[in-house]
Amino acid sequence: MDRTARDAGFAFTACAALAAYNNVLGRAPWHDRWYVPLNACATGAALSLAAASGLTADELGLGRGAWRVGRPGSGWAGATAAGWLLIAALPATRPVLGDKRVAGLGGRAVAYQALVRIPVGTVLWEETAFRGVLQAALRRVMHKNAAIVATSAVFGIWHIRPTVQALRANGFSDEQAIAGVGAGVAATAAAGGLLCWLRERSGGLAAPILLHLVTNSGGAVAAWAARRRACSS
Q1: What distance in Å separates the CA atoms of residue 133 and residue 73, rounded to the nearest whole number?
Q2: 80, 136, 170, 227: which could form a disulfide with 59 (CB 3.0–4.6 Å)?
């Protein structure tokens, strides 16, 4: 098998594996309990497989100098953090943060979510898998823009099951949850496109990691803070 065929096989196998991983494995009853160590191991496995396929550290966004966030990454992360603060501070926008999965947690549980579960189990794993391995693998077999579109589409598919679970946890019926999946997948695909663009623009994973972390951890802390403020008023 020639090099081009091997690269294409690895890229499209990675697409299929990631499309299935979160939607199939995530349904297992033990998945939530082992979420952080499981995804940390998956991160290592993905990098090992990428290295075995011939992808270099520079291609994966892990090379020398690739950990500079850069102005676009800093700007997007700063704007996102400011947005969470504004939404949590204004009574008119506070209901947007009414996520029952977070609002009912105590301070320690929220700290664990924001400082351990999200950074290691979600952000590090997803950025390594998508903006690192998958985007680099696809860049070898297709144009840069096509690789961004494909990576973002798989990222949207990755979120089908979590979107359904989030909607159900917040009181939506099965029919409403299923109807909302399309919007959720489209939104996460669009977010994935921004993260992919930051990966290309900055030359490394630092910028998408920072923005992803501020978005997810910031949202969790903002939802908890808004709930506490509502209860105390």
Answers
A1: 20
A2: 136
